[in-house]
Amino acid sequence: MSEDNNTFEISRRKTLAALGTIGAASAGAGLGTSAWFSDTESFEDNTITAGELDLKVDWEEHYYDGGAESVEIASNPEEADFFLPALEPQQMSATVNLASRTRVRPIALNFTEGSDLDTFWEETAIEAFPDVESEEPDAGDYDGQQDEIEGDICEYPADLDGVLSHPFRTGGALDDGVTIGEGPNPQTTKPGDSLVSISDVKPGDFGEVTLSFHLCDNPGYVWLTGELTENLENGLTEPEAADPEEDDAMGDEEMEGELLDKILTRMWYDGDCDNQLDELEGELDLMIAVDVSGSIKSDEQTAMMEGINEFVNQLPGNDVQVGSVNFGNNEITGLQGLTDPGDLSVDLTGADFAGNTPMPAAIDIADQAVRNDANARDGAEKAVVVFTDGGPNYQNDQYSAGGYDAPRDETAAFSAESGNNTYDNADTEEATVSVPEMEETGIVADTVRDAGTRIATIFVGGDEQDAMTDDAISMYGTLPEFLGAEVASPGFSFTAAFQDLEDLSTDLVESIVVSEEVFFIGTLGQALERLEQGNGIPLDGNLDTAFDEIFDPGDDADREPFAAGETDCIAMEWWLPINHGNEVQGDSVGFNLGFYTEQARHNDGAGLPPENTSAPNGTTTVEGNNS
């Protein structure tokens, strides 16, 4: 990453030209006036200096290729010490499809005796900047782990030109094959190489890089940027050509590889900059809202009940409390208050499974319960998990359960219009899912998320456009896309088949019960597609707001700039799930990652046209191989 690509300064020419224009206007306004009094004063050596906006970036990278002695493959993923879920993303909506288990299995590892996560993380550290602080380091000085930066980051190091080959960066293999570095994972990058450059990737491998960025001088809006630079098939091996998921069975050299759409990624705000997506720290109060509308058939009802109860069983005890509520047939029923997961069982055998889907009321009442239940805990994180097979359809009515009313008050925060205590946007045909109903549900969900409650949605239907009106399809595309864009917190929308819910319970728990904010889950291809849009993914300087990095515009009122002089970290994790995967043999993917920033003053976060942001950093290459 070069300083040219990491530093964005206000153009002095443009700034001074603007100041000159202001001065000329002021002078013009004074022409023709009369001086009633006269005097002469001298103000000498006046200067106007344009402010600066300087962005500096440092990092630490990890890679696991199966060689770490501190871990071994876990025979039971549900009891694994370290877990990467078997998420198989489905759509650009950042909705994640959990349904396929035949080709995708989780990466689950257990620590060997005497080892722990810190040991494992030391073994997998392969690359850092700064790794050393000596201008002439010895080979033994490198360990792949970032040295703590002392003093003002904006003054360190003084020269960032050619940062990808800076001596403070972890060294790599030289042309003669001599390896620099004596750490557990000797480096394979050469000075100037891409930030991530890994070959011979196999199913079960994963990597992670945390990018630490620092705004110097002035606050600014920041975007994470990127672009795909190559996606190559690189010929075919015999097992690759025979794989049913190989798109290039004829060996067409112009065909693209499959690796891009098989590698999975997560991106999150790494609040403590430790390269790990932290599990829940502290307490969590969680309510489950279960769709019991008429579209869910008898066998699906049983599968959903068993899957939800297995999800509950997998929740960690002590720090987590869970309750549940049902919604369907124009009412909210079956409210169970917060309790230890071992004491809750979701029983759907008595539910009507009929009628419509009052989703906004379910979200409203579930949020009230998670906050006001007799067992609700001050200071605990709050979450609502919605299991549904469809979109909202309901009557213009008020709903009640367990002493809670929805809408809970007469403001527009909990329905489309203020001044009444009912919902306002029901469709005249109760069986349809319409744009007004979806908009009103989004209003309620926004209000709940704004108050600090995380919402996760699990779409368990088969027909992703079931009962949607043509206008709703045009507006939202599919029901999972609607749930991901309008209802769920960023990165917390999932899809799963009814019959797979029970087996996928561990995946759901590992994906939902986290303390740091995930803003993207998807394939590497989906990630790069989003990073290439506009100025990239707009990042939020205040995580207490409900800004959605994937769907909301950059100038959304909930987005705030980053302060100057502080350290903020963004993490990107990638993994190739365990499967037969011969279709990725020999494939390679190259991509750029970087940041773009604009000053906060006089800007609203909308961003300048994309042509001003063509400075993503460091081509990143990943190559696949599997036998």
UniProtKB/TrEMBL annotation:
Compositionally skewed regions (Polar residues) per UniProt: 611-627
SUPFAM superfamilies, sorted: vWA-like (SSF53300)
Region (Disordered): 602-627
Domain VWFA as annotated: residue spans: 285-512
UniProt cross-references to InterPro entries, sorted A to Z: Signal_pept_SipW-depend-type, TAT_signal, VWF_A, vWFA_dom_sf
Pfam families: VWA
Designated name of the protein: VWFA domain-containing protein
Organism of this sequence: Halodesulfurarchaeum formicicum
